[in-house]
Design brief:
By secondary structure, the chain is of the alpha/beta class. The chain has four domains: 12-89, no CATH class; 93-190 and 413-603, Rossmann fold; 196-411, 3-Layer(aba) Sandwich (Dimethylsulfoxide Reductase, domain 2); 650-763, Beta Barrel (Barwin-like endoglucanases), CATH 2.40.40.20. The protein binds ligand MGD (2 copies) and molybdenum atom. Residues 63-64, 80, 194, 227-230, 233-235, 255-258, 260, 289, 291-292, 294, 372-374, 410-411, 653, 655-656, 660-662, 755 line the site of one ligand MGD. Belongs to the prokaryotic molybdopterin-containing oxidoreductase family.
Length: 768
Amino acid sequence: MAKKPPHSDIDEAQVHVSGRKKVAVGVPAVLHSLKIANDQMGIKRSVQTLLQVNQKDGFDCPGCAWPEEEKRHIAEFCENGAKAVAEEATIRRVTPAFFAEHSIDDLRGHDDYWLGQQGRLTHPMVLEEGATHYVPISWDDALREVADALRGLDDPDEAVFYTSGRTSNEAAFLYQLLVRGFGTNNLPDCSNMCHESSGSALVETIGIGKGTVTIDDIHNADLLIIAGQNPGTNHPRMLSALEKAKGRGATIVAVNPLPEAGLMRFENPQTPKGVILGGTKLADEFVQIRLGGDQALFQAIGKHLLEVEEREGGVLDHPFIDAHTTGFEAYAQEVRDVEWRDLVSATGVPETALRRVAELVRTSKATIVCWAMGLTQHKHSVAMLRDVVNVLLLQGNMGRPGAGVCPVRGHSNVQGDRTMGIYEKPAENFLQWLDDEFAFHAPRKHGYDTVEAIRAMRDGKARVFVAMGGNFVSATPDTNVVEAALANLDLTVQVSTKLNRSHAVTGRRAIILPTLGRTDRDIRGGGEQRVTVEDSMSAVHASRGRLVPPANDMLSEVAIVARLCAMVFEGRQNAPVADWAALESDYTGIRDHISRVVPGFEDFEAKIAKNRTLYLPNAPRDERSFATESGKAVFTANRLEYPFIPHGRLLLQTLRSHDQYNTTIYGKDDRYRGIHGGRRVIMVNEKDIHELGFAENDVVDLVSEWRDGVERRAEEFRIVAYSTPRGNAAAYYPETNVLVPLDSTADISGTPTSKSVIVRLERRQPAV
Ligand SMILES: Nc1nc2c(c(=O)[nH]1)N[C@H]1C(S)=C(S)[C@@H](COP(=O)(O)OP(=O)(O)OC[C@H]3O[C@@H](n4cnc5c(=O)[nH]c(N)nc54)[C@H](O)[C@@H]3O)O[C@H]1N2
Ligand SMILES: Nc1nc2c(c(=O)[nH]1)N[C@H]1C(S)=C(S)[C@@H](COP(=O)(O)OP(=O)(O)OC[C@H]3O[C@@H](n4cnc5c(=O)[nH]c(N)nc54)[C@H](O)[C@@H]3O)O[C@H]1N2
Ligand SMILES: [Mo]
């Protein structure tokens, strides 16, 4: 095969396809994760660590944000949770000796897989301007340099502070205070690329940017629609909840362009039935929808419900609609006017099948719609999600048992970070409470979201970039633009557990601040500390790590931020007032502040003591009340949109394999999809492969086409025939981020359109 693609440490010539799975989890999953755990941690540490995941007084799984069941299994088992834990609890180390050995050019030549495999970061490091290597620096000097760089800016808005979603509530709260105390709202986060569209649609229609169901609601739903989500890989613990719902008679509809194994059938390794009898069939109906066709699907459901209502009555929940909603007539008119013909071409699903799904909705006593990235990363995602809400409102599926919206979050504390104020467009009342608590005046001007931050860096408007976790370079769209934008900066600072590309692609100077993760024991001046996180269902609970940290003298995220607060605010006018050293030494002090600033956290410490859970209030769920302008839930009329695919082109979605956590690559296999030994593959419908003049296994470049005329190219992908609608294709993120144009974002939410990229395939010229 041809030469190695850029930044790839995987020998892609080995990639092969075999054994596509129709069943998720089961015994192979257990064995696979134990192998990874053993490689990273050794047997003793694996057992010690995996037994504590999501247990009372253990640590919160850094895997996903799906909530725990009230009655937990000992070692509630989740393959990908185990991999996420192993990745963090690894015994491999990236020490100053590693950086002495590997120059910055050398690091740049590797991909995220290789970088992540090197282990945990142990020492603060600095890359001086023009230097070839990172060198060690003391904690004091490193933090002082960050503080000085910030204080040296002409305007606080020249700094950008990114957050990924693993940061604890305590660290996040202090971090947003650091940023606002410094004088800016430039707080982009991973959420901007993730569930921002959900937040935008939900705040507008139901007055809260979160889901409205509990785990009990999932168990008790009559109908669960799971759209644009691959739970078998990305939220495996959700499968147990779905199994339970099935056991109680629920119907499950899977809406996805791909027949994902986890949606079809589940073998629960915790029960003999799962292992011996081949598991539970999950989806009763699989809607193989075209990419971006979901708005049409939900309009079709709404249209059918209204048609039957007009014919026979008895479909709509009129008392609910009258008492609790506005906008019904305009919505009804919009879907009455839309043509079945258009709904069919948008979804690629025959009218009979659309009506069959709609009938399941009509006859359901309690319906929940779950979704993830398949619904949030399109140009028209906000409209799509508004139409999801419309359908639920028609039958009063909001604020009653077994019913509601369930945006399934990604990172384990991404929802909590938002609750703590990590948001570039903070609400006025939040700022007011912050001002009162810390005796300062927070800036009111809205800050940059992720895409706007990249533009600001590109255009020379930002000079310092600080990241609280994450991998900004690899996770963001338009990789080449982002790499050039970062190179424009005076200083880039990464607070990280593991090495990744964002440490290799930097500003003129760069600082790495290693930090403790969820699994590490965190001992501060005031003794052993706990932190808290919020799951997808607004439940907040404590997390305490037990492992010996990777190195002595490592600082927690809280400690890093508390020290920065002291240094940045020293002698500064209008700075927040608090005892930073005391907050660093005992996090109960931070929770005390939170309890006075953030609604729902009253008596925070008492509520999480003894490992209890604090359930945040959720007005739509708890009392059918909606914090919108009218105080009611809002039906919206949305013009039907769906992607147009030019002739000879494919619409590409960029998604996760089974062996990765976002930009962290655990291995080269995508077991359920039957792809082994490589990641540079593009899954295409067999008929399209031939129609486009290719054969399976051909090696092609993917070239994205966007109205700005810039050529974006991802090199050397192997074509794999896969079950996906005609005209649609799929390939892995982050290798394909180079193809997503920076300005191709969702209306309103600004989320990059990672599930909707027009590409053409170009035959790869054999290397000479
Ligand atoms: N093991 C593991 N767990 C994870 C993560 C991980 O990388 N690895 N990431 C975490 C994060 S941050 C997040 S946000 C979540 C992500 O969880 P998911 O959203 O499940 O992740 P993706 O791989 O992006 O999968 C998108 C799914 O939507 C489908 N899809 C794509 N486009 C469309 C569409 O237009 N319509 C419909 N109906 N379906 C579509 C795809 O085929 C795929 O099944 O998982 C979290 N958990
Ligand atoms: N093309 C495309 N792009 C996408 C997506 C897509 O589906 N397609 N999905 C988007 C989504 S949903 C998301 S959420 C983003 C993810 O974007 P990010 O959150 O920025 O990326 P991650 O890969 O999750 O970040 C991993 C890094 O976080 C650091 N880390 C891990 N744990 C901790 C911790 O406890 N503390 C600290 N300080 N650091 C830690 C480690 O150094 C690790 O290398 O990517 C987005 N980008
Ligand atoms: Mo995410």
